[in-house]
């Protein structure tokens, strides 16, 4: 068992099954020593953890705490896509995280939401999990998801 597999086990994290694509694309692809994932939604067993736009203070929307948990799930799904393609133990470092947050009008806390993904990657990979990142607010995401995350890792 490599350091990454051992760390996942130590954290009690089991990578989920790869989320099947919703359209005409693949979950991950390798170009040279980089693996790029497609955007991953916060699906668990085919069901979204939450639906709707993220807001700090409106009723009937996804709160920040739930959105952070959703971003973490997105990152787990992205790691599952990497694992299925090249094996999680081949990852040398996380290069980039791009997070999209379906944002209610006036919401500007996208960086805090995408931290759900970034913090997980730090827990799993340590210093090799430090990455560059974009956290972007958008009007809508597929299936009404509150968050979508994609990764680029070096293998």
TrEMBL record:
Endoribonuclease L-PSP/chorismate mutase-like domain location: 6-144
InterPro entries, per the entry: Endoribo_LPSP/chorism_mut-like, RutC-like_sf
SUPFAM superfamilies cross-referenced by the UniProt entry: YjgF-like
Domain of life: Bacteria
Protein name: RidA family protein
Native organism: Tsukamurella spumae
């Amino acid at each position: 068992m490599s350091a990454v597999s051992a760390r996942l086990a130590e954290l009690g994290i089991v990578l989920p099954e790869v989320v099947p694509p919703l359209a005409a694309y693949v979950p991950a692809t390798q170009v040279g020593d980089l693996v790029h994932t497609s955007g991953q939604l916060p699906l668990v067993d085919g069901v979204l953890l939450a639906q709707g736009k993220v807001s700090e203070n409106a009723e009937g929307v996804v709160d920040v705490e739930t959105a952070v948990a959703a971003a973490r799930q997105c990152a787990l799904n992205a790691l599952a896509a990497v694992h299925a393609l090249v094996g999680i133990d081949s990852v040398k470092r996380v290069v980039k995280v791009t997070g999209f947050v379906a944002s209610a009008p006036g919401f500007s806390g996208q960086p805090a939401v995408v931290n759900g993904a970034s913090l997980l990657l730090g827990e799993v990979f340590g210093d090799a999990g430090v990455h560059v990142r974009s956290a972007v607010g958008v009007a809508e995401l597929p299936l009404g998801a509150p968050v979508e995350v994609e990764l680029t890792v070096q293998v």
